[in-house]
Amino acid sequence: MLLATRAANPLLRWSYFVEQWDRIEEAILQHVQLTLLAVGAGFVISALLAFVALRYRWTITPITLFAAFLYTIPSVAFFGVLVAYLGLGLLTALIPLTAFTILILVTNIMDGFQSVPASVREAADGMGLTPTQRLFTVEVPIAVPYIINGLRIATVTTVGLVTVAAIIGYGGLGRLILDGLRRTFWTPLTIGASLSILLALLFDLLFFALGAWLTPWARRKQTL
Amino acid sequence: MVAISPPTSAVTWLAQVAVPRDITLWEWFTDPETWTGSTGIIASLADTLTLVIAVILCSVLLAVPTAALLAHWRKAELASAWVVNIGRAIPTFAIAGLLVPISLRAGYGFEPWPIFIALILLTVPPMYLSTYTAVKQVDPAAVGAARAMGFTEREVLFTVELPLALTVIFTGIRVASVQVVATEPIRAFLGGDGLGRYVRDGIGQNNPTLVLGGAILIAILAGITAVAFVGIEWLAKPAGVRRLSGAGASREAARKQMVAG
């Protein structure tokens, strides 16, 4: 198998895109789906954790330490432990992917709300805003750049880690990489790896644009 | 002994660990055969440690001197701002995968260059960034005083800036090193061995005990690495810096570095 010649096994055979498009499409869709589910779940958990941390200050350190602990669990070990208990399944893929997003998201959400100057909060209170109004019309807009930045890094990281979930059969484009490695057939390997890197760049760009769109004042300040 | 897993789910060019399916975790860990031989834990740990230490040493040698010199001369500030601390955002598996056919064609085989290069790419940016910011944020008054006392630029860097920056530099090295230990096991899925082999073979043979045993070994190594680096950090800190009242500030910077994302 290792003696396959260059001509028979090029790095990329373009016709594969046509012949195996269904497979590639399925891999891309699964990759995007896993990424969005993990980041979405991670965002909900992180928002709750950040809310608790900012409300009860003493919980900031334990929450940060817990999130940092989750982040340092080796991905292969995390998937492995869950395989042993839950078997090969979607949940086994999603739990580690979600856990890895929490450190990035929770610290960025907390930083965002902590960046609201006390004077701005007092001014909002002085103008008679209710705490809910203050949260949504004053604090959230100020925190948005931090939150978007957190989502951006978490999403790009998750796109990379989804490929590792291929080891338990749920890797999106990672399955093409693993399949290529197992069969020493380079076309799916090259396609899976390149498309996953492209997907990460695409999400990066998307969140950059979203940040710029959501915070027009930041742009205006720059041009002045 | 149970036979080899089906060909579609096995990395067929590698020796597989063959373990009975009904073995318990305790039996696996206490069986001397688990530890010895070419597929044993000792050999796999040696494999993993060799790669991890090589990666950490190379990336420290690449990142720290470059960043320290550039930060001392305040060069490449804009470029350094672009090296964001992206942690795990580097797609190690995809990069290593892309490098495998190139390595094979160049005659270097499946291993270890693809995973080595991918891990270097994972660690150099955070190490560079922490060193650069650490040296740059050294109190200008201390640097100014040293220059006024006639220190040469080399002395300023080695006797003032680096000792004061050491805590943050070491935090950066620790975070990156734990990241390397945590990522290295994917090597088992790239045609290599190391501690990740048990998870790979366990999944291939549908043997949860083997998967769990391998996962535990990897997690323990990552934990030991983190603890060991905290110890090294403490030992490496100059006594004078430990006494400094500014220690609180550098701890805060270290925390920022650790959770930066």
Compute the separation of the termini of chain B in Å.
46 Å
| Chain-averaged pLDDT of chain A | 90
Number of H/I helices of chain A: 10
The ordered H/E elements of chain B are HHHHHHHHHHHH
Q: Roughly how many Å apart are the termini of chain A?
A: 63 Å
Low-confidence stretches of chain A: none
The total number of structural domains of chain B is 1
Radius of gyration of chain A: 22 Å
Sheet with most strands of chain B: none
- Total strand segments of chain A: 0
Briefly, what is this?
By secondary structure, chain A is mainly α. Helix content of chain A is 79%, strand content 0%.
Verbal overview:
The complex is a heterodimer of chains A (224) and B (261). The radius of gyration of chain A is 22 Å and the shape is elongated. Chain A has helices at 15-19, 21-55, 60-72, 75-86, 90-114, 118-126, 131-162, 173-182, 186-214, 216-223. Chain A has a single domain (21-214), classed as MetI-like fold, CATH 1.10.3720. By secondary structure, chain A is mainly alpha-helical. The longest helix of chain A has 35 residues, at 21-55. Chain B is mostly helical. Chain B has one domain (25-259): MetI-like (MetI-like fold), CATH 1.10.3720. Residues 1-13 of chain B have low confidence and may be disordered. The chains are: A mainly alpha (224), B mainly alpha (261).
Q: Topology, please?
A:
The complex is a heterodimer of chains A (224) and B (261).
Chain A: H1 15-19, H2 21-55, H3 60-72, H4 75-86, H5 90-114, H6 118-126, H7 131-162, H8 173-182, H9 186-214, H10 216-223
Helix pairs in contact in A: 2-5, 2-7, 2-8, 2-9, 3-5, 4-5, 5-7, 6-7, 7-9, 8-9
Chain B: H1 25-30, H2 32-35, H3 41-72, H4 77-82, H5 92-105, H6 113-136, H7 140-148, H8 153-183, H9 197-204, H10 208-236, H11 239-243, H12 247-259
Essential attributes:
heterodimer, A: 224 residues, mainly alpha, MetI-like fold, 10 helices, elongated, B: 261 residues, 0% strand, disordered N terminus
